[in-house]
Structure of Phosphoinositide phospholipase C:
Amino acid sequence: MNGKVDKPVKQEFGVCGCFSRRFRSNQLMTPPDVEQVFEKYAENGVITPEKLKLFLNEEQKEENATLADAEQIVAHQLAKESHLFSKPKHGLTLDSFFQYLLDPSINGAMNTKVHHDMTLPASAYYIYTGHNSYLTGNQLSSDCSEKPIVDALRRGVRVVELDLWPSKNDTQIKVYHGRTMTAPVDFALCLEAIRDNAFVASPYAVVITYEDHLTPELQAKAAQITTDVLGKLLWRPEEDTKCAKFTQFPSPEDIKHRILISTKPPKEYIKGEKHEKLAERLASQKAEVASSKPGQTPRSFFGEPRKSSEWGPEVPGFVASEKRASLDPSDKPVSDDEDTDNDDDDDDDGDEAPDHVKNPEYKSIISIRAGKPKGATVVETLVVDEYVKRVSLSEPQLEKVAEKKPSALIKFTEKNLLRIYPYGLRFNSSNYNPHVAWSHGAQMVAFNMQGYGRPLWVVHGFFKANGGCGYVRKPKFLFPSENGGQEFDPRVAKAPVVTLKVKAILGLGWLEKFGKHHFDRFSPPDFYVKIAIAGLPADVKKCKTEPIEDEWIPRWEAEFDFPISVPELALLRVEVHEYDMTDKDDFGGQTCIPLSEIKQGLRCVPLDDKKGNTLEGVRLLMHFELEGEKFGW
């Protein structure tokens, strides 16, 4: 039995304008894996809805699939083939069955519905978080705009950051990256963009973090603009003047379709430039922007950048380098001069405001209180108080505490919110390894969404979980008070509890998407697949197939096994590249899938571009199998 779907691809490629090379690529033939399954369930050359239900239950491990589900799949597929005169009316032929398997809308590789318990306090979830959400590019000289905010929200991001600064005449509020050459955008315009796009991708709450540098008068004005623009969407604390002093945060279910403000309670404004040293340092480093590529870390931070392979820069390692760790130690106070990204810092700048300038209007809009004692060490900021709060730590601060006292982070994040932001010298909007933060309980791992690269791909993939709603339940082992006091230590390697078996079968869609000369001027492409696990250090593993030469529809039939010790935090990374003997390999697509969301069996895996947008029609047929203990939430 050997079904076919498409006609053969015949192509000519000119060489030096003198002669042509002719290639005839294979047809899209049903692979042996599909034929074997079809033979198992087909009767008289057709899989009926009753047999398709068995296929879903047994091969695809969809235990809850019903006959109605199978009938819907058959009806969907037959409707697509309504132009065929010889199609059966009661089931799927081999070709129809193969086409169904290649349709990501009905045979995707991930769960697409919200299935986590959404009634727990917000501190029990990872939250999709952006950093400097208004920037269109690098951190020093790019434009500020509402468009990146719109793009992030439509992707599912739930935490948006706005830096609020006075205009030159101190009468207006502008949003921009302070002490840089970034061009400002109007504050109200950003809020309008948030209001209009907050719930396009998800009904769950959006949090706006204000990093404000405003006079008391402008703080009052900011409160008024916030109230006027957001209207009934704005969620206020029950007691307007107590600045959201809750013993626990509300649940995502409680604050659906609402927008929350998180910032420091207002202090007395002290006019004057406090950060001249920082400004000088930023000015001296701005040349880094021109020399750094997206996804590459500046030399001034890590020293020499990691050498790029044909795959480009990899996800940074789990443990900080000695040089990075020494930049921001946790055993001494973090002063304004030492912190290289003060706009993200939660230190309580200034003295307590007198009663007549305490800005009750501004206090009344704050739902999530942010801050830490001025001059406190990083560990001292992680003390659990009666009232919950949000604390922000820089990337190096997190790594230092994680190295010396990881239990402090995990205990703090049981009830409180911890936000991690990129190191201040990532001028080119590069990102870091999010697993360091996730494995220590940090809920708001702030990423530069305007960039691209493997760390950002991992974050995009991670938040595809739970229906892509922007809230992902934290694993139970990060709650020691509910786990018999047992403390999780990410540094300690653990025995594998599950094994993910992956088979890359075939791929298609590049010719239709890109055209025949996109990858190679003189021949069809030579595609190969790299399959890897992103997660804790013990689980990280990378494999790749051999290139298939001169094929637009490559068939790899390659199998790989991945033993995994912490599957709750693991993601499957898939990348396709086109092999080039004389130049850098061309990018052909990528995706990241949380292990907890993978559907087993024969699945269609759509691929994304470098920025995380879907490459229409470009997809792989893969087979997944999970062996071992059950895991999840």
